[in-house]
């Protein structure tokens, strides 16, 4: 039985170039339980996306140990999916072929998994787009297709790097609810990087506040159960939401602002 979905023990990252060493992360340590939704917030340049790249196995730590479901991360894992701000849809493939792309890469595309992906697309109100191409879709529709592609492979861990920052507010709220509903049904673990403090509070079980250059984790904020159990829109309107938002904002304001 997996004790933790993610274990980071004194993980650092140093990037090397011809002239210098760039220290991206001080030693960071944290643990995330299976089924937990955790957000990383902090100013630009503090290493949030570096943490996601480490989790995805796209880069290796300079020191320390990083484990996903008890196994050290040395390369990308089929248990992990990564969703970016850009939808990264392939313009020469139809929506139907895009949503099964991850299944193809993992050697899991068959009649049943393709059917399940189409059903998920229908739940998101996009069944009519199956034979369309990405260029024929709005930005919000494209991002919904990207969400279907990500969830279709049924990952154990979902990494999210500002996935809804490029869509309008109404679409963002809709996608947030679809995401949280999908995670609960499939009992997935999620790690979200976001600059949107409202999004972090309305989606997360815990929030890790990062800061500095090199980046470090400066605080962990536990989100109250009443907010965790509500859908994202309802959570934003609850009496306890605004005081927590203000507390998180002040925490962010207390750190020096940095630029990528």
TrEMBL record:
Entry keyword Nucleotide-binding: yes
SMART domains linked: AAA
Keywords, ordered alphabetically: ATP-binding, Nucleotide-binding, Transport
One Gene Ontology MF term: ATP binding
Lineage top rank: taxon: Bacteria
Domain ABC transporter: start-end pairs: 6-237
Any Pfam family matching the protein: ABC_tran
PANTHER family xrefs: ABC TRANSPORTER ATP-BINDING PROTEIN, TAURINE IMPORT ATP-BINDING PROTEIN-RELATED
Protein name: NitT/TauT family transport system ATP-binding protein
Originating organism: Melghirimyces thermohalophilus
